[in-house]
Structures are given as structure tokens and as C-alpha cells.
Specification:
Aminopeptidase, three-stranded antiparallel sheet, N-terminal domain of TfIIb, nine-stranded mixed sheet, about 25% strand, alpha/beta, 2 domains
């Protein structure tokens, strides 16, 4: 199997760059599978910004939307990767307290087996299934038939955190040695299936301290969600949710406070 491994899709996330530099030095001969590394957005990385003109991780496929530098770079990557690789791993970091996670935008057998194997090898790993999984997503993963996104945190933008470098590298090297023949009982594999986003209420609100920093902790009907400087509280109404990407710095420009998910198992997601 031939892997494309991308670091620096967002220019202010250098952990992935450190991982692909290490892989380049060691070369593919150490592993079962072949691979090639790519710096996703070199110009954004040079200036330490998430992007130059638009988000590169929203630039692919029929739903992709990009401009300027990212329009050109997405075309370059598409020519280099699409149709030439069996599996794609895109390495990201988050300012949210999410720990070690992978995000699935593909639901094919190869991707599902990869997720199960990484969970088996790294019990602390959290599997997130995107609400867009199985559709034409505009992410880098659109360029390969099987793919997943590595998302680790918390870490500030433009900061290299050693434990996250090591954790990200382990996920990559684990998968580069996986034979993809093993079967798994998907009813035993827990995951979080994203459902949507929660925006900040109108006015000056903050994520409540009982929620902030507690990604994947259940929020029940009546629990606190937001608070203002006067101590007024907005409470959650409805079915229980599991927030993630809480207070993610990159999402502030869109007034997004968090994404939210339901807790389920992989078999239930696939049988929806």
C-alpha cells in the first residue's frame, strides 16, 4: 500500500511538520508500506499562519472553496496525490483539550480497519466520525480512496510540543506497519459521531468553565454551556451532547464555540 502523509496543511500547526521531517530522514525502507510526505501549505508555514488567503483544508473536491495561494496549492497537491496513493494521513493539532484523536471522513473498509487498529495500539485514542463522512468532503482526505485525519492537542498555535510529536509519529508508524488483514468487532469500537456546531449566543459570552477544557464530557439537558462577565448562564436544552473542539482558536473567526457529537459505536454509524 502507498501512503501520502501531509503535515502543515495549516501553517500554524508545526507538529505535523516535525513528524514528516523525521519520516523523510528515516525513509520508507523501515516500514511495511511505501510512503511520501508533503508539506501541505509551505507559504502559510513560512509566515506562521493558518492560511494565506483561505483554508486549504476546505479546498478539495466538488465542494471545495479556495482563493489565492490556497487555490494554487490545492491544485498542485491534487495533481501529486489523487490517483497515486491508496491511503492519506493528514496531521493536525488543535488548541482544544482533545488529546489524541483521529477523524474519519471515509467509511470504507480500509479506513475503518485503520481506525480500529490504531485504537487497539493506542487505547487512549478517540475516534471521531465526521458528520460529512461518506460524502464529498472538501478536506485533504478527499484526494485518496482511504484516509484519516490525525488531530492532537491541546497546543498553542506555532508551538511544537514534544509529546504530541511523539504521539502523532506513533500513529503514523503504527499504520505504516499494519497489514490490514485483521478483522474487528465494530460493535465493540466506541466513537463520537459529530452532529453539528454550537455558535456563541448573541452578545458577549464565554464557554462555561464546567465545559471549557472538557472535550468529550457529556453535557445534559439543563447543564451550563455559556456564561457572561455578570455570571449569567445559558444552559443546554435537549438531548445530551458531547462537545469537542471546544474554544478552538481557529474557529473563533466563524463564531463557533464548539462542535458536538453523540457517543456511539462504529457498527451503528455504518448501519445508519
Amino acid at each position: 500500500m502507498n501512503f501520502a502523509i501531509i503535515g502543515g496543511t495549516h501553517g500554524n500547526e508545526p507538529v505535523g511538520i516535525e513528524v514528516i521531517r523525521d519520516l523523510e530522514q528515516k525513509g520508507p525502507s523501515l516500514y511495511t508500506h511505501e510512503f511520501k510526505t508533503f508539506v501541505g501549505n509551505p507559504k502559510a508555514f513560512e509566515i506562521g499562519k493558518r492560511y494565506v488567503n483561505s483554508d486549504l483544508n476546505r479546498a478539495f473536491g466538488e465542494l471545495g472553496n479556495s482563493s489565492g495561494n490556497e487555490s494554487k496549492r490545492s491544485e498542485e497537491l491534487d495533481k501529486e496525490i489523487r490517483g497515486k496513493f491508496d491511503f492519506l494521513m493528514d496531521l493536525h493539532t488543535t488548541t482544544s483539550n482533545m488529546g489524541i484523536t483521529i477523524i474519519l471522513t471515509h467509511l470504507d473498509e480500509t479506513t475503518i480497519k485503520a481506525a480500529c487498529y490504531l485504537k487497539e495500539k493506542n487505547p487512549e485514542l478517540v475516534i471521531i466520525v465526521s458528520s460529512r463522512a461518506g460524502t464529498d468532503c472538501p478536506y485533504t482526505t478527499n484526494m485518496a480512496p482511504s484516509a484519516l485525519t490525525v488531530e492532537v492537542g491541546p497546543v498553542a498555535n506555532n508551538v511544537v510540543k514534544a509529546d504530541l510529536v511523539f504521539s502523532s509519529r506513533k500513529l503514523v508508524t503504527d499504520l505504516l506497519d499494519f497489514d490490514f488483514k485483521k478483522s474487528y468487532n465494530l460493535s465493540q469500537i466506541n466513537c463520537f459521531h459529530t452532529q453539528g456546531i454550537l455558535s456563541y449566543p448573541e452578545g458577549k459570552w464565554m464557554v462555561h468553565p464546567e465545559v471549557d477544557g472538557h472535550d468529550f464530557r457529556e453535557v445534559k439537558n439543563g447543564d451550563s454551556l455559556f456564561i457572561n462577565i455578570n455570571g449569567d448562564i445559558v444552559r443546554h436544552e435537549g438531548e445530551s451532547i458531547f462537545p469537542l473542539f471546544i474554544n478552538e482558536a481557529a474557529y473563533q473567526e466563524n463564531n463557533t464555540a464548539m462542535e458536538y457529537a453523540v457517543k456511539t459505536t462504529l457498527d451503528k454509524v455504518l448501519n445508519r
